[in-house]
């Protein structure tokens, strides 16, 4: 099956074996795209298995919220309506647990300008906070090291001067230096990020993450610490943390999959 | 009434338990057309109170109906099988607003509008904004995964929910996060209290926009409004709301927004865009161009006051109809955007065939329509005609690739029809999930999904009789 664009609904249906490149090419015909940080060679099935759209979700919303419908375990879940609350939401719950046979995505407008940057030096956490506080905050911000911040901006041409000027100003004030990188480098950075997220305040991340030996990154716009699975429990916040037991979770997934 | 389970409730929860007829009458119905018959009512103050009530009810096999603001239009909070109502009137605390993290932790009974007002004091906002926001509460919004007027740009309730504190059907308390490997948070959101009872939530707040603008558009024909909306979704930067109002609804609203909403048109759109200072003119210009090229006329609201009048009128649509129609039946369907206008046309034909008056609003940018059927409640058979027309409406919407509900939920109202949208395999999977999280089947039973063995194609409200 080839990706089928439904421009009037800003949606696209694709088979699980279709590549993201094919999806983006079909969507681009009408100036649309699926906003995810993933290589074009990734298949729809792999993308949904990953569950995460990458740092760019901070601007465009979660990948899981862009899946209007999907086929999993022989079940058809969701519809092509943008809003659909009929039945239980098994599609979000099963995402990552079962391979997707197909999916219908909600698309976004392609931005006129896409800029990807690295800021080296200074306090990357402080720089991220300064950028985030401005109404013209970038689309995505990832602290890769205490002195290395990855920045993504998607915008219209008319806004570019203000948005990029804001980045220049904040980077200079932080004593950092700015390097423009291409999309491939940005995607490589995203691809290398640890994938297990923990919601964590900046104030905690600043103290805890750099002192930890395991690979980590801090997605400053989504307020997520990205860590390895074994490290996840180390960074769990102290909020009401009575997680449902693993046995219960397994039973729910199995019930939906049987 | 004195039964063992009520005695146990009183022993554990003391004066939070009520059984007087006047108290029970207050929670016997919601904004739907159904009336229930609760046996007891409890007003918990804490999650532990809720867990205690659930454990006692489970031990005695007593049905539980969680109740938020009581604004459900589908009977989701009606205790149609009797039992215990857990009402969240005393769990109205905003526990924390973290300005830097842009989050709020709140108890389930906090009214939506109060949270938003509180957030705005800190330069933030709570984005999901159902029309009922003054009365509906966060717990109910989560239970239905409620939408609203600005969900086109900012997402529905589920997209703002970062974490949930819940009580499962066995009385255990758990915290569900959006970062969990298996997203039970998403499963519970929109489950109408049938899988777990939400007692508190961690919610995402958003910064206020640097600039916003509202454009009011009028169109001689419905199809022009539809074409305009489709195009704006593809082209207009910063589009956050695109609300449709039909001629019948405009007539009802003329006293609320004189000179603001258009007259003598078949359709109006209320369009809002947000941008930084440098982008707002372009956003407005794109909207105006889309409107005019579709054959409509556009006018930007000139002041904050005019913007407030326009949105207040839109939010007051159903109330305003009260001065023109004595009784109404409100629907909630969603279709792919490109099928919405033909669905609205078909809805008008269905209403006319049943000798009913129809007026509609729609979240046009989301493909979410709310046809409202008006009838004379004193006329014998009139309500039944409204139900018959409703059946035709849902068949039409599903034939157009749509869904039974975009934001109001299934409740009791559309329970019978879920088997038209989903096959038995999907319904069985949902039933199995319910059986895991609520093994005794006491959490809002007989709602949201049809029970095994029930005829899933009976008429509306057949499950209530």
Describe what this molecule looks like in 3D.
Chain A is of the alpha+beta class and about 260 residues long. Chain A has ten helices and 14 strands. The model of chain A has no long low-confidence stretch (mean pLDDT about 95). Chain B is about 35% helix and about 20% strand. In chain B, strands 12, 13, 14, 15, 16, 17, 18 and 19 form an eight-stranded antiparallel sheet that branches. A five-stranded antiparallel sheet of chain B has the order 5-6-10-8-9. A four-stranded mixed sheet of chain B has the order 1-2-4-3. The model of chain B has no long low-confidence stretch (mean pLDDT about 95). At the A-B interface, β5, α4, α6, β12 and α10 of A face β8, β9, α8, α9 and α17 of B.
Please mark out the parts of chain B with pLDDT under 50 across 5 or more consecutive residues, or reply none: none
What is the first-to-last residue Cα distance of chain B?
24 Å
Placed side by side, the strands forming the largest sheet of chain A appear as 11-8-10-9-13-14-12
Structural class given helices, strands, pairing of chain B?
alpha+beta
Radius of gyration of chain B: 22 Å
Q: Spans of chain A of 5+ residues with little confidence (pLDDT < 50)?
A: none
SSE order of chain A? EEHEHHEEHEEEHEEHEHEHEEHH
> What integer is the average pLDDT of chain A?
94
Oligomer: heterodimer
The fraction of residues assigned to DSSP E strands of chain A is 25-35%
Q: Major beta sheet of chain B, specifics?
A: 8 strands, antiparallel
Work out the radius of gyration of chain A: 19 Å
- The rounded distance between the terminal residues' Cα atoms of chain A is 26 Å
Shape of chain B: globular
**Mean of residue pLDDT values of chain B:** 94
Largest inter-chain contact set: A-B, 69 and 89 residues
**Shape type of chain A:** globular
Structural class designation of chain A: alpha+beta
What is the total tally of β strands of chain A?
A: 14
Number of helices of chain B: 17
- β content of chain B, as a range? 15-25%
């Amino acid at each position: 099956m080839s990706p089928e664009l439904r421009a009037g609904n800003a949606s696209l249906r694709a088979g699980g074996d279709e590549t993201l490149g094919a999806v983006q090419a079909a969507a681009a015909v009408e100036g649309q795209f699926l906003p995810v940080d993933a290589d074009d060679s990734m298949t729809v099935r792999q993308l949904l298995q990953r569950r995460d759209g990458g740092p760019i979700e901070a601007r465009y919303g979660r990948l899981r919220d862009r899946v209007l419908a999907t086929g999993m375990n022989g079940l058809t879940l969701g519809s092509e309506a943008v809003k659909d609350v009929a039945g239980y939401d098994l599609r979000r719950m099963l995402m990552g647990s079962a391979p997707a046979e197909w999916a219908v995505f909600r698309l976004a407008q392609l931005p006129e300008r896409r800029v990807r940057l690295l800021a080296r030096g200074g306090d990357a956490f402080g720089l991220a906070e300064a950028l985030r506080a401005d109404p013209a905050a970038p689309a995505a911000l990832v602290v890769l090291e205490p002195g290395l911040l990855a920045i993504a901006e998607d915008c219209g041409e008319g806004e570019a001067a203000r948005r990029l000027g804001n980045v220049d100003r904040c980077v200079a004030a932080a004593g950092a230096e700015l390097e423009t990188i291409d999309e491939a480098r940005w995607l490589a950075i995203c691809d290398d990020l640890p994938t297990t997220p923990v919601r964590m305040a900046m104030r905690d991340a600043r103290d805890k993450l750099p002192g930890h030996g395991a690979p980590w990154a801090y997605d400053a716009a989504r307020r997520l610490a990205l860590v390895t699975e074994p490290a996840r429990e180390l960074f769990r916040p102290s909020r009401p943390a009575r997680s449902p037991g693993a046995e219960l979770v397994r039973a729910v997934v199995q019930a939906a999959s049987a | 009434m004195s039964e063992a389970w009520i005695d146990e409730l009183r022993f554990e929860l003391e004066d939070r338990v009520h059984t007087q007829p006047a108290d029970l009458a207050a929670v016997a119905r919601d904004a739907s057309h159904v009336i229930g018959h609760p046996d007891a009512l409890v007003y918990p103050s804490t999650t532990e109170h809720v867990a205690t009530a659930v454990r006692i009810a489970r031990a005695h096999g007593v049905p539980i109906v969680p109740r938020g603001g009581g604004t459900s239009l589908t009977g989701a909070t009606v205790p149609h099988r009797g039992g215990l109502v857990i009402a969240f009137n005393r769990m109205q605390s905003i526990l924390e607003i973290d300005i830097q993290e842009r989050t709020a932790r709140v108890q389930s009974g906090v009214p939506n509008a109060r949270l938003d007002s509180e957030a705005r004091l800190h330069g933030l906002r709570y984005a999901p904004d159902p029309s009922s926001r003054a009365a509906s509460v966060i717990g109910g919004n989560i239970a239905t995964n409620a939408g609203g007027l600005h969900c086109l740009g900012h997402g529905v309730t589920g997209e703002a929910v970062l974490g949930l504190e819940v009580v499962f059907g066995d009385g255990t308390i758990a915290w569900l996060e959006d970062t969990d490997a298996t997203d039970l948070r998403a499963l519970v959101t929109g489950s109408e209290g049938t899988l777990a009872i939400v007692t508190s939530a961690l919610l995402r707040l958003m910064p206020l926009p640097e600039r916003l603008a509202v454009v009011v558009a009028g169109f001689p024909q419905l199809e022009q409004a539809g074409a305009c909306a489709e195009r704006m979704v593809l082209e207009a930067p910063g589009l956050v709301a695109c609300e449709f109002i039909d001629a019948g609804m405009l007539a009802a609203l003329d006293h609320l927004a004189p000179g603001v909403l258009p007259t003598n048109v078949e359709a109006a759109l209320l369009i809002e865009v947000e941008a930084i200072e440098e982008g707002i003119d372009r956003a407005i210009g794109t909207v105006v161009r889309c409107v005019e090229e579709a054959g409509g006329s556009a006018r930007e609201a000139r002041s904050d006051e005019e913007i407030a009048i326009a949105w207040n009128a839109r939010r007051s649509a159903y109330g305003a109809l009260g001065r023109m129609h004595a009784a109404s039946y409100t629907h909630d369907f969603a279709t792919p955007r490109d099928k919405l206008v033909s669905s609205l046309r078909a809805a008008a034909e269905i209403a006319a065939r049943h000798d009913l008056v129809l007026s509609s609003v729609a979240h046009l940018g989301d493909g979410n329509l709310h046809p409202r059927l008006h009838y004379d409640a004193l006329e014998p058979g009139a309500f039944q005609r409204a139900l018959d027309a409703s059946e035709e409406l849902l068949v039409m919407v599903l034939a157009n690739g749509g869904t039974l509900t975009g934001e109001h939920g299934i409740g009791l109202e559309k329970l019978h029809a879920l088997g038209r949208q989903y096959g038995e395999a999907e319904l069985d999977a949902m039933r199995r999930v319910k059986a895991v999280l609520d093994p005794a089947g006491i959490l809002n039973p007989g709602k949201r999904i049809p029970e095994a063995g029930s005829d899933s194609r009976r008429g509306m409200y057949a499950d209530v009789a």
